[in-house]
Design goal:
By secondary structure, the protein is α/β, with parallel strands linked by helices. The protein has a single domain, classed as Glutaredoxin. It is 34% helix and 19% strand. The chain has helices spanning 11-27, 44-50, 64-69, 100-109; strands spanning 2-5, 33-37, 57-59, 79-83, 89-93. It has a five-stranded mixed sheet with strand order 3-2-1-4-5, with helices on one face. Strand 4 and strand 5 form a beta hairpin. The radius of gyration is 13 Å and the shape is globular.
């Protein structure tokens, strides 16, 4: 599972959403993608529509879930958490995800396999 924490005011977050959507469209049947946004919820649906985001994005009112996953000190947005099949956090990425190739490498480092068959 990929859990992507982002905010509406963060330009890098919007880039991450696009990379994560590309991943979701290609591999979403193998690895679940979930976005989490802790603030400015009324701004979220228009952003999701503008970038054609189809994976689920959840509202974290009060940022309680976000705080539990901030595993590194002074973590900033965007940050992405990788969770294996056993439910254990196996990786955290605390900067922008450049592209799909980088995301696939990060998943591999986190021990999450995406068998492409391509």
């Amino acid at each position: 599972m990929i859990i992507a924490f982002w905010t509406t005011w963060c330009g890098a977050c919007l880039k991450d959403l696009q990379v994560l959507e590309e991943f979701h469209r290609r591999y979403g049947d193998r690895v679940v993608v979930v976005g989490v946004c802790p603030e400015r919820w009324p701004e979220v649906p228009p952003i999701l529509a503008r970038y054609r985001i189809t994976f689920p994005v959840l509202y974290d009112r009060g940022a309680q879930v976000t705080a539990r996953y901030q595993l590194l000190e002074h973590l900033r947005y965007p940050f992405t958490v990788f969770v294996n099949e056993e439910g254990r956090v196996t990786g955290v990425w605390a900067v922008i995800i450049r592209d799909l190739a980088q995301l696939l490498k990060l998943l591999g480092r986190a021990g999450i396999s995406v068998t492409t068959g391509e």
